[in-house]
Amino acid sequence: MLNENHAFILDFPELTADIVQLNHDDPTFKADLQQYHQLDYDIRQLEISGSPIDDDNMNDLKLKRVELKDMLYKQLTKHHEQASN
Description:
The chain is mostly helical. It is 78% helix and 0% strand. It contains 4 helices and no strands. The longest helix is centred in the last third of the chain and has 30 residues, at 55-84. It starts with 7 loop residues before the first helix and ends with a helix. This is DUF465 domain-containing protein.
C-alpha cells in the first residue's frame, strides 16, 4: 500500500511503554529507531512523488526497513520479557 505509515509505535501499541523506556534508556535502540523512522519517512516521500527511483532500489530500501524493524522488535521483546520477570 502506498504511503502507509509504518511508525514503529503504531505497529506495536501493546509495547508502547517498552518502546518509550528503551528509547529513553538505550542509546543504541534510540539511534536504530531514529534510523528506522527516517527510512520509513524517505520511502513514503518517494511513494508520494511517484517513486522516482527504480524498483530494485525501492525494494532495497523496503528490505532495509524490514530488517531494522525485525532487529528493533527483537530488542523490544527481550526488554519486555526481562521487565516482566
